[in-house]
Amino acid sequence: MEKIKQRNLAEQVYKLCRQIPQGKVTTYREIAAALGTKGYQAIGQVLKKNPDPGTVPCFKIVKSTGEIGGYCGSDLKNISMKIEKLQKEGIVVREGKVDLGKCLFRFE
DNA sequence: TTGATGACCTGAG
DNA sequence: ACTCAGGCCATCA
């Protein structure tokens, strides 16, 4: 049987990212769960390697603890920009952390 | 193919 | 609350 494995994890991730509404954020864990995998790291890996802020709002993805994590190379400067973008969307960021109980979006 | 890396997660001290 | 160590998965050299 040819398992219809995930053609490309990246594509799935991008699709989910695009489906994130404005003013909401998601965690790597949710994405991995939505894809049915446990490679949380792989998610971030793909996002980091394929930074497409024009098509995929990767800044809407945070850690399960609510921390920002990283952005465009895990540089602190970029992280700051990520936070600003989130705030602009209407997301509440406190001490570099996001209110998951308020802006956590889940894939149905 | 093997080995190393990473924007992670969970649990224990 | 914070820090340390182990684990899981996909991608790159």
Descriptive key words:
4 strands, 43% helix, mainly alpha, globular, two-stranded antiparallel ribbon, disordered N terminus, two-stranded parallel sheet, DNA-binding, 108 residues
Number of strands: 4
Q: Bin the helical content.
A: 40-55%
Strand composition percent: 5-15%
Helix and strand content put the structural class at: mainly alpha
Whole-number average pLDDT?
A: 88
What integer value in Å does the Rg equal?
Answer: 13 Å
Side by side, the strands of the main sheet go 1-2
What overall form do the CA principal axes indicate?
globular
Unreliable spans: 1-5
Task: Give the biggest sheet.
Answer: 2 strands, parallel
Helix count, per DSSP? 5
Distance from N terminus to C terminus (CA atoms, Å) equals: 28 Å
| SSE arrangement, N to C | HEHHEHEEH
What report would you give on this structure?
The protein has 108 residues and is mostly helical. Helix content is 43%, strand content 7%. It has helices at 9-18, 28-35, 40-49, 76-89, 100-103; strands spanning 26-27, 61-62, 93-94, 97-98. The strands form 2 sheets. The chain has a two-stranded parallel sheet. The chain has a two-stranded antiparallel sheet with strand order 3-4. Helix 1 packs across helix 3 and helix 2 packs across helix 3 (40-49). The longest helix has 14 residues, at 76-89. The chain is globular and about 35 Å long. The N and C termini lie far apart (28 Å). Mean pLDDT is 88; it is low at 1-5. The structure holds a DNA duplex (13 and 13 nucleotides).
